[in-house]
Design brief:
- This protein has 148 residues and is mainly β.
- It is 9% helix and 45% strand.
- The chain has an eight-stranded antiparallel β-barrel with strand order 3-4-5-6-7-8-9-10.
- A hairpin with an 8-residue loop joins strand 9 and strand 10.
- It is globular and about 35 Å long.
Length: 148
């Protein structure tokens, strides 16, 4: 089953889809929510009141996504509650040469593909997580802060 998180063809706020070349070394590391995304989660009481989503991409193509609001993968009303995913990651090119991050969830019985668009704002690489309808404006951004 494939779960496409959002189509990032025209972002507002100075965010642009990543196209062209991208090195895997630019992705490896620890990704955390940007400040405005943390504010969005807290002010709307989404996810955990004391933990933020964290994405870890490793050089061996394994990933860990912890404390993501439960509504993200389930397309339900957002509220409290988080879950975690683990598995393998890869990159692929989509429509318009846009680069997407593929997360293959190995913990749910049968593998599930989750695709996440990548964007840049002022040169900073971001992973874009949209909850439900891409036009809803319910989006958070994770930014790589540390390398392993």
């Amino acid at each position: 089953m494939a779960l496409t998180v959002t189509l990032l063809s025209s972002c507002g706020g100075g965010y642009r889809p990543v196209k062209g070349n991208l090195s895997e070394s630019e992705l490896i590391g620890i990704w955390m929510v940007k400040a405005e995304s943390e504010f969005y989660l807290r002010s709307n009481k989404i996810g955990s009141p004391d933990r933020n989503p964290v994405l870890v991409l490793e050089g061996n193509h394994e990933y860990r996504l912890d404390d993501i609001p439960r509504c993200w993968a389930r397309f339900e009303e957002c509220g409290e509650g988080v879950e975690s995913f683990r598995g393998k990651w890869n990159l692929h090119r989509g429509p318009g040469n846009q680069i997407w991050l593929d997360l293959i969830d190995m913990g749910s019985g049968s593998p599930r593909l989750i695709t996440i668009p990548l964007a840049r704002q002022s040169g900073v690489l971001l992973a874009v997580f949209t909850f439900g309808d891409p036009d809803s404006g319910r989006t958070i951004f994770l930014q790589r802060l540390e390398t392993p």
